[in-house]
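thread: overnight batch results

M.L. [08:02]
morning all. the overnight job finished for the chain we discussed friday. pasting input first so we're all looking at the same thing
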Amino acid sequence: MITRSTVLVWFWLGAAVLFIAVVAPSAFAVLPTRAMAGLLVGRILPVLFWSGAIVGALILFLSHGWRRAAATVLVLASLGAQLGVAPQIQRARVSLGPDLEAIAAADPRRVAFGRLHGISVALLGVGMLGAAAIAVGGLATGRAPRTPGMVQSHESVGRTVPPLPAGV
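M.L. [08:03]
and the structure it wrote out:
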């Protein structure tokens, strides 16, 4: 059975995929400057990270076993990105000024910004892996449990029937 909390994970995972596959690339493709695209993306990421932390915390408190571990991954990755990396990125953006592209690629400030950006992307990816484990695991465990020695009939989900005697 797919739980409501698993549905929340699917929604969050869908939002994260939409963000990385459509929103961020589109912002950088259509806005007049990379700085404007970065500002737009920077406004969306906190929503994604905070909601990932909330959904992960909900799963964490409602689950046990491997789901709890996957939820912990989602929570830690989301909070690490939002509370640890995002403030550093903001400070780096301020020190670089409005036009990041005008700064030499070898400038230590730009190198630091690129490193922080990579860490942020990696944390989002790790959080998505945790969410995907919960989401896909929710589908796999959504089937009725099997009792050893019993055959599950597809007509009677949730009920089991004894195996047929040999030779029948």
